[in-house]
Amino acid sequence: MQRMLSFRIRRWYFKLLYAAGVWLAGYLAVSLIDFGVPYGVALGINDVLTLAGIVYGARIFRGIDEPDEPARPWWQMTARRTLSRVIGYLALFAALISVLTLVGAAIGQESYIRAVEQQTVSGIIVTAVFYAIVAFL
After folding, report:
1. Closest C-alpha among 135, 45, 123 to residue 96
2. Cβ(79)–Cβ(62) below 8 Å
3. Of 47, 53, 63, 108, most Cβ neighbours within 10 A?
4. Which of 25, 33, 70 is nearest to 51 (CA)?
5. How many C-beta atoms surround the C-beta of residue 8 within 10 A?
6. CA geometry: angle 43, 25, 113, nearest 5 deg
């Protein structure tokens, strides 16, 4: 386990490749729906894989001038505070969209009702919680 956490990625193209791999793992999890796995379960697997990929990536990614040791504090996700804030705001925005979709469906807005029917209420709640966790981190 220690060896996994001592690995570092510094170059942007390797970080992009890592992010694409995390996305692909989540995509494959959602594609399990085609094999009879319930939508909520596949979405949950996707969210767990994505969250684990984000947290692990935050541990192993390093800025160009950032030292390997000591390890970052658990709450610090990036080498620069500005980038951390941007990622947090984007995740918070995504969580708010999910919550607003549920609120819009609850008050009877037709387009929001259709969105909830396509995804399910539990799927939207899981997505909102997922993005809220990412925004917190």
Report:
1. 135
2. yes
3. 47
4. 25
5. 14
6. 25
